[in-house]
Amino acid sequence: MTEADVLVLNESGLHVRTCGVFVQTAGKFRCEVFVRHGDTEVNGKSILGLIGLAAENGAVLHIRAQGPDEVEAVAALKQLVDSRFGGMA
């Protein structure tokens, strides 16, 4: 299992477009991906689950992956969040 904490840096937090990009990125990997915010953990490949986290700017997300390419998946998702989802607001 590979895990990482990331800080949501974009002003609007997690919204539909950022969640869509996250899900697309997570979907490139064969491993299972989970994202936790507070006490709630969701499937990181579910856009509705991610939107439901209602993570605002400054929120800390815990990404957890398990499977054959878990290290690469967590690294890619951490990079995505760290880059403010490629510059999205």
UniProtKB/TrEMBL annotation:
Domain HPr: 1-88
Any Pfam family the entry gives: PTS-HPr
InterPro entries, alphabetized: HPr, HPr-like, HPr-like_sf, PTS_HPr_Ser_P_site
Compartments in which it is found: Cytoplasm
Gene Ontology biological process terms from the UniProt entry: phosphoenolpyruvate-dependent sugar phosphotransferase system
GO cellular component term of the entry, any: cytoplasm
Keyword Aminoacyl-tRNA synthetase included in the entry's annotation: no
Family annotation (SUPFAM superfamilies): HPr-like
Identification of the protein by name: HPr family phosphocarrier protein
Source species of the chain: Eiseniibacteriota bacterium
